[in-house]
Amino acid sequence: MNEQRFLSQLEEFSTAFNDTKGNGVTRFSWSHTATLAQSWLEKEFSRMGISLRADGAGNLHAHIKGKTDLPRVIVGSHLDTVQNGAKYDGSFGLVAALETLRSFREEGFIPNRSIEFIAFAEEEGANFGTTCLGSKLITGIIKPNDLKSLCNDETNAWDMLEKFGLDPANLENEQIVPHTVYAYLEAHVEQERRLFKNNYKLGIVKAISAMRSYRIIYHGESVFAATPLKERRDPVVSFIECHTEIQKAVASGIFPENTRFTVGQICCNPGTPIMVPGECIFTIDIRNLEISNLPAISEKIKEIIVKVAEKNGIGVDIVPLSRSGGVKMSELVQNAYKNATNELGFEYFEMNCGTALDAAPMGMVVPAGLLLVANQVNSETGEKYALPEDLCSGALVYEKTIRQLVSE
C-alpha cells in the first residue's frame, strides 16, 4: 500500500465532508454531506474501473471479482458520524479498505475469492436512535417494514429513505446470504482508550458487548414557574430521582460485572425557562459483554423507572430504540489478524470492545473480525485522534489480513 496516499486521502475524506468544521466531524446518513462523501467514493472507485451502488438503506457496495466462486470476503466500515464526532470515526476503515483494493489493482493481484466493499449507512443511529441500522437491515436483524415505525420528530425511516431517492422496499432482495460470505473484516479507531492505557497501538477484538437502548418519557404537568413546589407534577424531578436510583443500584453491585449505563440525551417539553415541563424525555443505553445478561439488567432498570413514576404520580412511556452486539468475533479472522500483525513485526492487545460497530450485526450472520487502532486524546482540547504511524500500522495489518483471507 501507498502509506502517504492513504494518509492524504484519509485526511481529505475526514475533513472535507463535515457539517461542523472546527468542532468535530458531523456527517449524518441521508444528508447532503453524506451525498458528497458518496460521490467522492464513487470517483475513487471509478478510477479503478469499479462501480459503486447504493442499496435500499443507502449502504454503498462495490465488487471485485475473484478467480473462483468461493464465498467472498466483505470489507468496510461506516460512512456516517455522530454530532461533532471524532475525526477518523468510520472513515479510517473505509479509506483503509479503499487503499487496500487500489493497491491490489496496481500490483495486478487477482484474489482467489471475490471481495465486496461496503460503506454502511446509519451506524451511529443519529437520525432515529437505532445503531447499525444499515448493517442490521442487510443482515435481516431488522425487517424493512420496521422502518415505518422507526420515527423521529419529523418523519419515519421508510419515508426518509424514499425522500433520499432510495428504495427500502427492495431491501428484502438485497440481504446477505450467509453461506456466500467467507468473512467480514472491519478496522476502526478505538472509541475507548484501553489500548492507550495499556500501551498498545493495535487491538484484536475477541467479542463485542451487547447493548440495549430506550427512550424514556416522563409525563407530568406543565404549569407556570410561580406554581408552588408541592403542587407540581414535575417530570424533571422524577428523572433526577431515577438517575440517582440507577447509579445507586450499579454501585451496590446488583448488576453483572462490566455493566454500563448511560443517559446520552435529555430534553424537556416545552423547553421554556418560565414553565415547569410537561414532559422529560431521555435516553438510556445499557451494555454488558454477555447478551444473556441484558434482559435481567434491562428489566431491573425498567422497574426503577416505573417505580419512580408511580411514587411521584406521573405517567411514563418506555420506548425500545436499539439492540445489538453480544457477539464473539470469528477465530478465523482473529487468527488472520494475529498472523498479519506478527509478520509485520507489530504487537497487539487481545481485548473486548464496548462499542456496537457494524462488526456486531455482521458477526451474527457471518464470520467477522474487528481490528482497532489506539485512540489518543488532546489534553488541552479533549479532541480524539489517532497518530499517523498507528493509522498506517493498522492499515498495513488490515491489508495483509485481507490478502491472506482472499487468497485461501
UniProtKB/TrEMBL annotation:
Keywords: Hydrolase. It comes from the Bacteria. InterPro entries: Amidase_Cbmase, Bact_exopeptidase_dim_dom, Peptidase_M20. Its EC number is 3.5.-.-. The keyword GTP-binding does not apply. One of its GO terms (molecular function) is hydrolase activity. Belongs to the peptidase M20 family. This is Hydantoinase/carbamoylase family amidase. It comes from Taurinivorans muris.
